[in-house]
From TrEMBL:
A Pfam family this chain is assigned to: Com_YlbF
Annotated protein name in UniProt: UPF0342 protein CACET_c18030
TM region(s), chain numbering: none
Family membership: Belongs to the UPF0342 family.
Upper classification of the organism: Bacteria, Bacillati, Bacillota, Clostridia, Eubacteriales
InterPro entries (alphabetical): Com_YlbF (IPR010368), YheA/YmcA-like_dom_sf (IPR023378)
Length: 114
């Protein structure tokens, strides 16, 4: 068994999954709707800034977190964006599950990475 062949087979399986197909379909819809794309891009930019601060063990301002939560609430009021973010979460969860399965099979301690 060639590990790389298995990885390519897994990648094909992921691309053919309902979760991935739904995500890509909604991603196209969001990208072709300027208002939705701008909202998602802005949220992601702010979210990445906060995550970066957290990873660097920097204190994140409480107001910044409240603004991010408020922006998330606004995003979820838009049906297309809400559906897209839900699909993105499902895909992310599936990828996390696959990574966990691999880690457990190899007896890797990935508890600090979750």
């Amino acid at each position: 068994m060639n590990v790389y062949d298995c990885a390519h087979q897994l990648a094909r399986g992921l691309k053919e999954s309902r979760e991935y197909q739904e995500y890509k379909d909604l991603e196209r819809k969001v990208k072709t709707t300027p208002q939705c794309k701008a909202m998602v891009d802005d949220f992601r930019k702010r979210q990445l800034q906060v995550q970066g601060q957290q990873m660097m063990k920097q204190q994140v301002d409480e107001n910044t977190l409240k603004e991010l939560q408020s922006l998330h609430h606004v995003l979820m009021q838009n049906p297309l964006v809400a559906e897209f973010m839900h699909a993105e979460f499902k895909l992310s969860q599936m990828m996390s599950d696959v990574y966990k399965i691999l880690g457990e099979a190899l007896d890797l301690d990935i508890s600090g990475l979750e």
